[in-house]
Amino acid sequence: MAVKPPLVPNAKPLIGHALDIWQDPLKFFSAAARTAPLSRIKIGWKDACLISNHELLYQILVTDAKKYDKGIQYERARAMLGDGVLLAEGDLHFRQRRLMQPMFNKPSVNDYIDAMHTYSTAMVESWRDKEVVELYPEFYRLATRVVIDTLFSTIMSDADVELVRAKMPVVIAGIEKRGALPPRLFDTIPTPENRAFYSAIADLRGLGDRLVDDRLSMNRDGDARTDLMDVLTDTEDEITRRDNDRAQILNEFLTFLTAGSETTPSAIAWSCYLLAKHPEIQEQVRAEVGEFDLNADNTVQAIQQLSLLHAVVKEALRLYPPVWALGRRSLEEISLGGYDLPSGTQVFYSVYAIQRDSTVYEDPDEFKPRRWIDTPKKYPRSAFLPFGAGVRNCIGEHFAWIEISIAIVNILQRYELSLQPGQQVPPAAMGALVPGALPVRLRSVVPR
Question: Is 415 helix (H, G, I), strand (E, B) or coil?
């Protein structure tokens, strides 16, 4: 009999670790990481593996990437996203990724800077001196508007933005929880949560249908900037053109709406929280960005020269990665961490736990952005994976970095952020890793 990885303690009969994962996934994965670099968990009555070592994770995501598909969590997401580029496998993924990649390279992201600046300026100008603002909803609205305008040339109404803000977290949380449940065990039971999940999917796909139809019927000026919809519909490759029928265009629209509205606001919110919690670092970043002119003809490279801001965002992404846990599934028999595992093995990993590994990071739970300036080469690439790695890394990484940076520059040029004394902001694993509540007091720093 093959030797199995050690079992994480406290598996229950029939349900395994599902209830622990459901109730407090961050606590479970962080505690499980102490069991072994590669351990075994039970999802219902089925075995799965949990990776808690960055080198093993790199093996899965990069070295042996062709031996895995994206697994059970992503299968549950197909009800919402279909075979968009996030979920597509094999040749379809390769063709879609190759087609879209130029839209997310640095030269193309340069074209999005004006829109990012315009929307974040409007957000900040709606705030008032001495006001207490709940930041996360503000950033959610911002990111939703930015991703749909820049990639699909569509201006979303306030009502549509609020529909996304209300329904998308329901869908994402439902997908995450279904990844921790015995396969399809509870999917068909008409619980209030299941009804809300499928109703939210229907509402969001209905919204996507309407917005895609509006964009496809739009009479665009010949000088209009090429957007992602143009790329999807104007390809000369016959196979790719066949792939991108009306249904696939909707899948891609919903994929980018989901990714753009869920992950980026989390990163902006945690960055602002950490700056508010550490006012001395906030002042240092404000000094760095104070003279930076967002109205100038800036480029991605110029914004990335804001080294302390970059380090702050990177440290926020380390401590609070928006995509905090994912998985893969083996397509063949594999050797991993000294164990031989059968084809079909589900392998989970927690980016949150791996990026707080004390064998890699000194004071792993502390906010120390200067670690990325003073000793950046000390940390292996495989121990910092908020955007993933390998052929399935986040296609929008450059886009996200610049959107986050522009928002923070706009905020710090106008306001000082502060928390209430003793205020704690625990993370909530709601699909993306988000702050449960983040009320922040504003103080204007603009001379009168």
Answer: strand
Burial category of 343 from C-beta neighbours within 10 Å (exposed 0-12, middle 13-18, buried 19 and up): exposed
User: Tell me, what's the pLDDT at 181?
Assistant: 61
pTM (predicted TM-score): 0.94
Do residues 428 and 103 touch, judged by C-beta distance below 8 A?
A: no
CA distances from 397 to 11, 51, 335 (A): 37, 24, 31
| pLDDT reported for residue 131 | 97
Kind and range of the H or E run holding 69: strand 68-69
Report the 10 Å Cβ neighbour count for 217: 7
pLDDT tens digit sequence for 246-258: 888 999 999 999 9
Give CA–CA dist 410/369, Å, rounded: 20
Q: Is 18-444 in CATH node 2.30.30.140?
A: no
**281 pLDDT exceeds 70?**
yes
381: its two tokens: 């690439």
d(CA 355, CA 142): 27
Q: Which residues contact 2 (CB under 8 A, 6 or more apart)?
A: 339, 340
Domain edges within the chain: 18-444
- Specify whether the CB–CB gap between 38 and 49 falls below 8 A: yes
Cβ within 8 Å of residue 4, ≥6 positions away: 40, 47, 339
